[in-house]
Write a structure and sequence with these properties.
- 70% of the residues lie in helices and 0% in strands.
- The chain is mainly α and 235 residues long.
- It has one domain (2-234).
- Helix 3 packs antiparallel against helix 4 and helix 4 crosses helix 9.
């Protein structure tokens, strides 16, 4: 089943040049780490330090997943460009079909065993990062390079494992995507991952301001709720 979920990566990724080192360090003070804004919201809750530690643990796990799958998403974008350039040079449909079959056969033999080891959550993160790097959902990429029928069945199969191939990357609206972008910004700056520009520009200052405002509202709402609960308990 995971073959369907990760088909687009098998189709576009020709090689992985190196493994990235994960130092497993997450601190509020990390330079350019936008997700520290969210950590501040945890501190004011009744969970105190425990809540902060739990949040750090979740981000650390997410960081490991991002480090693991980002190279696949990056290579997907690179090979998509390469394939399009090669296809443009081929003159007949017969030549194009032959080229497609050769690429697909090589990728399945070379990378299928590696991609099968990805977990369900790894697949969810990978789908988001493919959108970040290509500007298209995994569903649309499969539809464009195979048939719409193939994309339909791939999507429905993926949903059985809680992976929606139509998922987009939305760091301004989805908290997990905001965390992912924060992790990438730091990884690029510290050279743990090789930076590749996202398909769509992301204004980091606006992103930080956006979530700072949202987190402030979360803090106010949570404090108000806690105050109401305290009044209720006292009565």
């Amino acid at each position: 089943m995971r073959n369907y979920i990760l088909y687009i990566v098998l189709f576009f990724s020709l090689t992985i040049n190196a493994q990235v080192q994960d130092t497993l360090k997450v601190t509020v003070q990390d330079s350019s780490v936008l997700y520290s804004i969210e950590l501040e919201e945890i501190v004011v809750t009744r969970n105190g330090v425990k809540g902060l530690d739990e949040q750090r643990k979740k981000i650390l796990i997410l960081k490991r997943r991002v480090y693991k799958v980002y190279p696949y998403a990056k290579l997907t974008a690179e090979k998509l460009l390469q394939i399009n350039e090669t296809m443009a040079k081929l003159k007949t449909n017969k030549e194009k079909k032959k080229y497609f079959k050769l690429v697909e056969k090589y990728l399945q033999e070379e990378f299928e065993p590696k991609l099968k080891k990805l977990s369900r959550k790894d697949g969810q993160i990978l789908v988001k990062l493919i959108y970040r790097q290509t500007g298209s959902t995994t569903f649309d990429l499969i539809k464009d390079y195979k048939s719409g029928w193939k994309a339909f069945w791939s999507s429905n199969t993926a949903k059985l494992f809680s992976i929606d191939l139509k998922t987009k990357y939305e760091p301004f609206d989805v908290l997990e995507d905001f965390h992912i972008e924060s992790i990438l910004v730091t990884a690029f700056k510290e050279r743990y991952l090789v930076q590749q520009p996202s398909a769509k520009d992301i204004d980091l200052k606006k992103l930080a301001a956006n979530w700072r405002e949202k987190i402030q509202k979360m803090k106010e709402a949570r404090l108000e709720k806690e105050e109401l609960e305290e009044v209720k308990n006292n009565n």
